[in-house]
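Sample A.
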Amino acid sequence: MLSAKQKELLNILLRQQQKSTVEQYARQLNVSKRTVYSYLDLLEPELNQRGYTLLRSPGQGVEVIKGKAINEEMDEETDLFSIESRRMELVYRILLKQNKVSLDAFGDEFFISESSIRKDILAMNQLLENSSGLRFNISHKEITLSGEVNERSVCEALIQLNEGFLIGNDFHEKLAHLSALYDMQIIQAVIALVTDYIQDVKINLAEHYMTNISSVLIVLASFASAGRHIQDEDNLLDYDRIRFLPNQILAKQFLSTLTEQLNVEFSEGDAQFLVEYLVADRIQIHNFEKIMEADRVIFEKILQKMEMLIYVQFSDNEEYRNNLLLHLNAMTFRLRKGLKLKNELLKQIKREFEMLFNLTWVVLESEADALHIHISEDEVGFLVIHFQNFIDLQQRTKRILLICPQGIATSELILNRLRMVLPAFNAIETASTSKALRCNLDSIDFIVSTVDVEDIHKPVVRVSPVITDEDLRNIMSFYQQQILQPPKSERSELKLSTLKRYLHPDFIIEGEAESKEEIIMNMAELLKQAGYVKEGYAQSMLSRETVGSTDNIYQIALPHGDIKLVNKTIISFYLLKTAKKWKNHTVKLVIFFNIAENDLTISKKILDDLYCLIKSRELAEAFRQKIDQRTIQVLLGIGEYYD
């Protein structure tokens, strides 16, 4: 039942002949703007029942029209666009125009509540994590920036925020979407510059590198057009300046081209800033990618450790080995400079290659101090793909046929996206439906098609012409399960022969800890008292958790810390009497992967056994029933200790 004030607002809405603002309604009713927002939400269903639609227009006000909205789907799209557009507007006004923004005025202009603005700020601050140190903040009813605000930090913040606004199916579409923030002439000039360079030097550069460096150039050109420049910090030694000379030449070449096209001038500081991103994105003058000798020695150690763990020889393919070294070099530069490169496929990589991801993390962490870096999940994910590609390369090259009758542009779009998720050595060929039916397909391993195909006796993965992320996940899953992994015979029992050597009944415990932190601290303390780990191991595990999640869909978490702080390898178990939320999943069992540095070579065999246990029917059945400490001991085959 409506209150007197709500009925009064309903009558006002039905009588008004033009748009009115929330502030006007608040004055008429003698209530707060927040109350008006709640009244409008309450009255909207009532208006719909009477055959009216309530329209809220950002920056204009509210009106009621006779008839229903066109369709709910369009309303939802408009609302989503509205959220993104107002966030971009905040970025434009505060970072690009350096304007003060009133919380109330912005809410009135976009017809949103203070809580919605706070959600916008939270979302944008999440994009700024691990970047320039700047954060959006609300103080004294104003939306401001906190942190050390200067041209460099603002540029870095804009580049990081652009990542969240790059929406589209390909390179051109993603950058064009930034036109709400930057001049379209600048965007088009940068697109032409980057694509021409890639074609001229004939390098195969991943799309995320292209979009990232384009974003940097767009921000720099936008700043320069407004007379804003980055100060040259002069923080490089002469030797480093010489080492980066090819990149400085390339940076000035890029900026010189933009100067001619856009009639803007760039400073030395702008050029040096661009150099850092050119190195990070591996866009360099051809054949000038040089690796410091001290770093090369460490990179070689990383590759040697991975060879022992995944049973490959990188020296069998010198070109691929050199590419791995170059990737490690670019990765190290990014991590040292604090340049964050978002890995769009991280969740897929962790899901599809979980064991290889953990092995790669452990190996990188063992050399992180020597390289003076703090590793990140995004970078580990990129490296995992390189290692997985090499593992696949040890098998035969796969041939994939793409059937796409929608035209060249659509075929190119799908082809580019396939190359992003499938190993680079695969041969991918495109064909029309009629050509596919005419050709001998004996040498084809599987087909990706945008249309239904008949009379073709090969595995087919059906995708949409715009190839969605779900399509890519399906292709990747099919490739892993059907092409690379032959069917495995069912195990009659859990062997776990390697794992059993590193178990002890005293470290299979049951508890009621209240949080992830408490679980880790409790187990680390027990291990330290028994001499298995050193002081600081708990903190190293907690630090790992802040970088990314170690839980999985099997209701298990697999935390691990710095291997240099482990005296003796032991795999310990913490069974929760009550399941707890870890990060992404609810967890019933925590398995601590405590590997000493001198046991690194057998860590894969231990992980093999652990994943055999984690994915076993026996453990799944135990989870469905009443699982306890004794059940875990029996599953692990160490029940005799208690008999």
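Sample B, a different protein:
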Amino acid sequence: MSSQAQLSMEENVDSLNNLYAKGLYEELIYMGQSNIADWPLGDTLNRHYGRTLLNLGKAFGQLEVYSVAMQYHRRALSVYKQISDSSGVVNAYTYLASIYYSTEDSAGAFANLNWARSYYPDSVSKTEEMRHTYILGLLYKKFGTPERGLELIDSLIPHLRTNSYLYAQVNVASIDLMDSMEFLVRYPDILLHIERSKFSVVYRIKALEEVLMRANEIGRQDIIVRYLPKLESLMKDGGRNVSITQKARFYKLQADAKAYQKDYLSAFNLMKDYTKHLAQMDSIRGASDLQKLETQVRLKDAELNAQELSIALQDSKRQTYILIVIIVLAGIIIFLIYRINRNTRERNRAIAEVAATRGRMLSILSHDIRTPLGQLIGTLDAFEEGDLNVTELKEMLGPIKAAAESTNKLLDNTVAWINVNRADFKLNPINFDVHAFYEDVLSHFKAVARAKEVSFELDIQLKNLYADRFLVQTTLFNLISNALKFSEKGGRLVLKNYQRKDRKVLEVSDNGRGISEANLEIIRWEMRISTQGTHRESGGGLGLTIVRDACHKLEADFEIDSIEGQGTNCRIVF
């Protein structure tokens, strides 16, 4: 064989080793069988051919196709014996022992391991010695004295490198023989070591399943619930390289976790999947009659577990139905009590609102309207009695007219406020054009704006608004009236509407006198306040009260902010 061909074979064997280390067993089988098919017929008696056969046997063994795995290991054994490669013979016998171990043939397992020992060369590496001890420990643990097996396995731990594959195997193999306290102390470190060592996905599944199966045995289903999402993720990553046994264990663990969480229906369905995989394990392995009998016992046990879960599921459903009936009856009683209380609260609130409305209306009529009317009557009485002459009366006509106009506006506001607070008031929301609405509202203020030389600006971003038009108009009338009242000559008043996240906003802003912090605090505390305008216009302090009441009816928020000397912004937020 040429040196180039020799190098190519070595590279192919190294590739198979890498695939095995990564747990990519199906890919290894495809590549290995292709290599065997292309191998020169007259050149099969060499160690590279034997290593290829061993890798194929190992891959089929991991996938639990044991009959095929055994064929490849025996072919490899024949090759190594013919070329007198003692190390190869040892490996072949050792892997045959592992197959017999997996098929629970104790005689075949011990015999092949002893033959492997007999072929050891004069000088054997420490690693090979420890591997032999590890396999012997597994055989004792399964077929002989478990304590002796655990003793052999534990004896290896101080001598192994912590990052070695054998160290991980030894730790995982000792899990099911630990007592509960030792297990609870050691299992987190074992899992952490497996995770950090970057072993193949398939081996990480094996390690995690061993931990969770042991947790299940000692009644710590909470550990299963905690780690199942991780195991599920690994099962997906493993794909077709996950063995039937690993899948069966996964379904069993899922079923136990669901039963622990009292989800008996899911647990019952998962147990059915588990029994199907047990049957598959039996057919794939080509088991002996004794093994088939053991499998049937396990299947029967799984069926009994499924029946228990089914009974628990029926009990759970019955309890659920009773609980639902109790909840429904309790809900009906609570709803009736709530309706009675709500009707009582609504009645009391309506009575309180009527009383409050009456009190506020009497306050306005008795003070804010009666005062200017009293001043007017007093002036006329003085003129009638001769205390005022015509010239003096003409001089007082200006203030009298202003007082009359203020009183008229106060009456309009009072009527509007009473309308808003009527007990029988009902919202009438419609979809209306905002631009036309703004134009209509501003038309009522053109004369006042012209007299004070205040300009209007519109900034309309939303074409339509769905709300009670009367209430929106009432709020804007009062906000615009206040803005004009406190605007200086040549001022500017802006009406806007826009979207703020999922809410619609109407805004009235001016660059007038603004509001002091003290007065702004009073307004925010919803107290009435009356202040003279820039042309000494008076008011009843009712405007913002009407705005707030209207906003309450509209289920909108009223916002106000101002800087003294710079202007005020008022917003209705729907």
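Observation for Sample B: The beta strands are 429-433, 455-460, 464-468, 492-500, 503-510, 557-563, 567-573.
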